[in-house]
Amino acid sequence: MKFVVQIKFGSIKKKVESFGSNRYLVYILSKKEEDGAMTEFISLMSKELGTPPSRIHYKYKEGESYVFEVD
Description:
alpha+beta, 1 helix
């Protein structure tokens, strides 16, 4: 399953908004340049999707959005 995400880095709190059709807006605390940003994002999406973090993989960037896949 592929899903498209727009990530808002450096937010005040963590939050996931779903827009249907596997599209999400995700707010994370880490800045884009920080080492733990992707780990924080994967952990948050893992809880949202109910799947282990190891099954979520980055595929490519599409404009402002990122495309991930759950295998």
